[in-house]
Structure formats: C-alpha cells, structure tokens
C-alpha cells in the first residue's frame, strides 16, 4: 500500500528528508506522496520513516493503493535497481 498525507498536514518539512525514495514533495498547499514511488520504506526500514517523524500523525494508508508486501518489495527493487 502506498501512503498519503491528509489535510491535517502542518507543512513542518520533517517528512520529506527521511523518505528514501524521494516520494514526498510539496503539493499545492500540503506535502504529497507519489504512490508510484512509495514503498512504505519496505527494503529500507522496518517502518515508514515519514510516519515516524510526523508530529501530527497525518500520514495514513492510501485507500486507492492497496498493495501487498510483494508489490512494495518489487517497487523497491525497481526504484533502487537492486535484484
């Protein structure tokens, strides 16, 4: 599953730097997560780093991107070039 940032985002800038896939960027009014780059940190960390650092807990599972660990690992391998 990919993650998304809700409207509760306060634009504190702490979620973008720890994202190993550069999936987080500034949107029109709040930060956004590119679901094609988000692996929920699978392959990098044991838990999504954006959720770890978010002070307002505004990052949730994206309801339109329900994917299993196998899909997330495949995306990790594609994004990193690892096999």
Strand-helix topology:
Blueprint: E1 3-5, E2 24-26, E3 31-33, H1 49-53, E4 59-61, H2 69-80
Antiparallel strand pairs: 1-4, 2-3
Structural summary, described in words:
- It is a single chain.
- By secondary structure, the chain is an alpha+beta fold.
- The chain has a two-stranded antiparallel ribbon with strand order 1-4. The protein has a two-stranded antiparallel sheet with strand order 2-3.
- The protein has a single domain, classed as Alpha-Beta Plaits.
- 20% of the residues lie in helices and 14% in strands.
- It contains two helices and four strands; from the N terminus they run E-E-E-H-E-H.
- The chain has helices at 49-53, 69-80, and strands spanning 3-5, 24-26, 31-33, 59-61.
Features:
83 residues, alpha+beta, 2 helices
Q: How far is it from the N-terminal to the C-terminal residue, by CA?
A: 21 Å
Q: Main sheet, how many strands, which sense, barrel?
A: 2 strands, antiparallel
Uncertain regions spanning at least 5 consecutive residues? none
DSSP helix count?
2
InterPro entries: 4Fe4S_Fe-S-bd, 4Fe4S_Fe_S_CS, PSI_iron-sulfur_center, YfhL-like
Protein name: 4Fe-4S binding protein
Domain 4Fe-4S ferredoxin-type: 1-29, 31-64
GO cellular component, one term: cytoplasm
